[in-house]
């Protein structure tokens, strides 16, 4: 007999704000900040390496926070939380702003090539 799928936690807008705030704060904890910095340095701004090295660390940090709110302690919990945040972004400007802040913590800043794409002559 197949087991029933786990119930997805239902959070209100206010609860989602609290959890999102805690997730962002978790990245400021010295131990977590050091883990992220080490992963970023190892990735050397290579997007493939970022996915291999930085994303798993970021996922673990998020999981440590959201599991207290009923999300499972696997990657699926982070995805469900991300979907919930995305749903509330359009309804709540504070959640939208925190979501942008979280993304900036996770994604490397992208440098844009010079206009025209020309490489300056040496």
UniProtKB/TrEMBL annotation:
BP term (GO), one: post-embryonic development
Record carries keyword Repressor: no
Organism domain of life: Eukaryota
GO CC annotation terms, alphabetical: cytoplasm
Keywords: Cytoplasm
Signal peptide (from-to): none
Main location group: cytoplasm
Record bears the keyword S-adenosyl-L-methionine: no
Pfam families: P_C10
Cellular location(s): Cytoplasm
PANTHER family given in the database record: PROTEIN C10 (PTHR13463)
Family named by the database record: Belongs to the UPF0456 family.
Protein name (record): Protein C10
Organism: Collichthys lucidus
Lineage of origin: Eukaryota, Metazoa, Chordata, Craniata, Vertebrata
């Amino acid at each position: 007999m197949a087991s029933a799928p786990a119930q997805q936690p239902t959070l209100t807008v206010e609860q989602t704000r609290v959890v999102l705030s805690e997730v962002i704060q978790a990245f400021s904890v010295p131990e977590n900040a050091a883990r992220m910095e080490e992963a970023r340095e190892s990735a050397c701004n290579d997007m493939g390496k970022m996915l291999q090295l930085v994303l798993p660390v970021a996922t673990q940090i998020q999981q440590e926070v959201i599991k207290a709110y009923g999300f499972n302690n696997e990657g699926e919990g982070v995805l469900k939380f991300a979907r919930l945040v995305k749903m509330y972004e359009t309804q709540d400007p504070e959640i939208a702003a925190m979501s942008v802040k979280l993304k900036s913590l996770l994604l490397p800043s992208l440098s844009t090539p010079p206009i025209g794409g020309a490489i300056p002559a040496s």
